[in-house]
From TrEMBL, chain A:
<protein>
    <submittedName>
        <fullName>MoaD/ThiS family protein</fullName>
    </submittedName>
</protein>
<dbReference type="InterPro" id="IPR016155">
    <property type="entry name" value="Mopterin_synth/thiamin_S_b"/>
</dbReference>
<dbReference type="InterPro" id="IPR012675">
    <property type="entry name" value="Beta-grasp_dom_sf"/>
</dbReference>
<dbReference type="InterPro" id="IPR003749">
    <property type="entry name" value="ThiS/MoaD-like"/>
</dbReference>
<dbReference type="Pfam" id="PF02597">
    <property type="entry name" value="ThiS"/>
</dbReference>
<dbReference type="InterPro" id="IPR052045">
    <property type="entry name" value="Sulfur_Carrier/Prot_Modifier"/>
</dbReference>
Amino acid sequence: MAIEVRIPTILRTYTDGAKSVNGEGATVADLFKDLESRFTGIEQRLVEDDKLRRFVNVYLNDEDVRFLEGISTPLKDGDSVTILPAVAGGAVAGGMR
Amino acid sequence: MLLGMLTLTQDLYEQIVAHARRDHPDEACGVIAGPEGSDRPERFIPMLNAARSPTFYEFDSMDLLALHNGMDDRDEEPVVIYHSHTATEAYPSRRDIDLAMEPNAHYVLVSTAESGADEGPVSFRSFRILDGEVTEEEVVFVASYEM
């Protein structure tokens, strides 16, 4: 058993084009470390200062992990994790939340 | 010189413009999905601007997941990602460029700065945004796509 991770187009350069990969970890943070061990560079696209990047969305079984425990959200075998970059922008460059 | 090209039906063009006018002065945003690899925008999906702001747009995170699940089920991808600027020109801002995360998408910008919510001139332009680099492309309007 493992955790299935759906990879967005923009990050498939790290996974040799794979749309989904298997990983393991007790939390989302551990899972990203596991991915990093095989797909070097992917972790820093997802994590900044030990937190999820503001414009990266991560879902555990169709729930946004921001509404769970964020990067510390516990995982178990058989879970499905989806990574999607936010779709965002706008006219004014200031005021980033 | 414009290298790339976006081919779009007149009907989809009108739907994007109508959405931009409806949400003015807030920014409107959405997607036109199409079969993966086809570069053909077909299915118009207006999205809610979760920021409800005249200077910022963001898809709601749960709406975004539902959008992707729906596209996956149909073997589609986001061919066009559109949003409006309501007080400035139809050109990607620094933030638009920094946050552009779909390498295969045409980024369409509509400016309602001139006519607001009313009928009248709008600016409608399309860009590729890759690794921080913006390339404008020609937009060709057709009555329908050739089979």
